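Why DUF1153 domain-containing protein? Reviewers of the renewal asked for a concrete example.
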Amino acid sequence: MIENQNIRPAKVIGPLGEPLTIASLPPPNTKRWVVRRKAEVVAAVNGGLLTIDEVLERYNLTLEEFAGWQRAVDRSGMQGLRVTRIQHYRDLYERQLKY
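Here is what the prediction returned.
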């Protein structure tokens, strides 16, 4: 019987369609989070390359912050991660829910 094994892929597909490995992820000391870097971290978790706990520890993020990134990607794609337009995308998502 096979129990829950920790099998991880060596690479996953990144947000721009490129292969993403642990080595190609943003470095752990990243302080400036641009859209692409956030999307790469979300893709790494979604693809099973890293766990949420590993991401929180590696990048010193809060669960709420990372969950916000995931929600933004789910709702609006990479554009939803843009800090300057966050209210626009939030309003757009709420309008879509109404109709």
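Residues 35 and 81 are 6 Å apart (CA to CA). This is the kind of structural detail the renewal will allow us to pursue systematically.
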